[in-house]
Amino acid sequence: MVSTEARVVCDGTLKIDGGALFGQLPKTVWENIVSTDRKNRITLGLNCWLFNVGGQWVLVDAGVGTNQDDKDKENYGLVPSRMFKELKNAGLTPKDISAVILTHLHFEHSGGCTRMDRTGSIVPTFSRARYYVQRASWEEACNPSERGKYAYRIENFMPIAEKGQLELLDGDTEIFPGLQVIQCDGPARGHQLVLFNHGGERLVIMGDLVPTPFHLNLPVISAFDYSPQDTLEQKKDILKDAEKMGWLLGFSHGHDVKSGYLERRGEMVYVTPVDLTIKSRN
Questions:
Q1: Residue 33 burial by CB count (10 A; 0-12/13-18/19+): exposed, middle or buried?
Q2: What is the pLDDT of residues 197-223, one digit of tens each?
Q3: How far is CA 210 from CA 5, 92, 275, in A?
Q4: What burial letters (b/e) apply to 161-194, b meaning 16+ CB within 10 Å?
Q5: DSSP at 155
Q6: How far out from the chain centre does Cα 203 lie?
Q7: What distance in Å separates the CA atoms of residue 125 and residue 112, rounded to the nearest whole number?
Q8: Number of H helices, E strands in the chain
Q9: Which backbone phi and psi does 16 adopt, to 5 degrees?
Q10: Burial 202-211 (b: 16+ CB within 10 A, else e)
Q11: pTM of this structure
Q12: Mapping DSSP to helix (H, G, I), strand (E, B) and coil, where does residue 130 land?
């Protein structure tokens, strides 16, 4: 049996407009369940995932990283990246990461893929890793539409290709034994879920398909999504399987709850939280 380990690596937080996050759901509904700042923004987590698969360390998503400009910091309320500290708390350095799987290439998921070196050049943060991205996601990020271009920063991902560390995928793929990706284009072209068999159970990293526990409610779909109708249908399928088979779900932007199991009470679905965070050694 292949030994495995799974942990949450939180790169910090960002703030997103509440109306955009909840899409068509009226503010009179969602303002009763979540608080906002004076700019109507909701605080979200920048949750990444650290897996050990047979001795190889795999990172799912990379947070915003350290390259964000002052405009992004102001618009999204970004705080300093915690990625290196989180890895240190796990007893690791960036060189220990063998693979980085990106759910998609929006800046808050891919920013930590690169960093500035001592010469001022932008280089891959994880110098020994292969970076796994859906081909459709790569093509969209390199040539975004007017609607989607706000979400991409070319410096976050182009150095990966230039250094020969990019691995493009075409649809559903098993990357390591027990670790596979499933393409779900609703949130963004080439968006992918990550499914990991861990200790006899399945952990599913939801990316932006279900970014927070609030989005378990089927009609709650972010206004940023590429194809909301596809998101709806894909959510139905994955959540039905998750409830039926008892999968552990990972929420990429959950703040208070980052992972948990689904529990149905009548017509409503709730989350029973599971703490997978790395404990500080300080």
A1: exposed
A2: 977 889 999 999 999 999 999 999 999
A3: 23, 29, 18
A4: eeeebbeebeeebebbebbbbbbbbbbbbbbbbb
A5: G
A6: 14
A7: 7
A8: 8, 15
A9: -125, 145
A10: bbbbbbbbbb
A11: 0.95
A12: strand
Question: In terms of C-beta density within 10 A (0-12 exposed, 13-18 middle, 19 or more buried), how is residue 275 classed?
Answer: exposed
Spatial separation of the C-alpha atoms in residues 280 and 197, rounded to whole Å: 26
Instruction: Give the C-alpha distances (Å, rounded to integers) separating 69 from 10, 46, 79, 80, 154.
Output: 20, 17, 12, 12, 13
Which amino acid is it at 75?
Answer: N
CA-based radius of gyration for the chain = 18
pLDDT digits (tens, 9 = 90+) for 5-19: 899 999 999 999 999
Cβ neighbours, 10 Å, residue 96: 16
Say how far apart CA 100 and CA 84 lie, in whole Å.
15
Q: Count Cβ atoms below 10 Å from residue 39 Cβ, excluding itself.
A: 10
Query: What's 187-206 look like in SS3?
Result: CCCCCEEEEEEECCEEEEEC
Q: How far apart are CA 190 and CA 159, in angstroms?
A: 20
Place of tokens 């972010």: 222
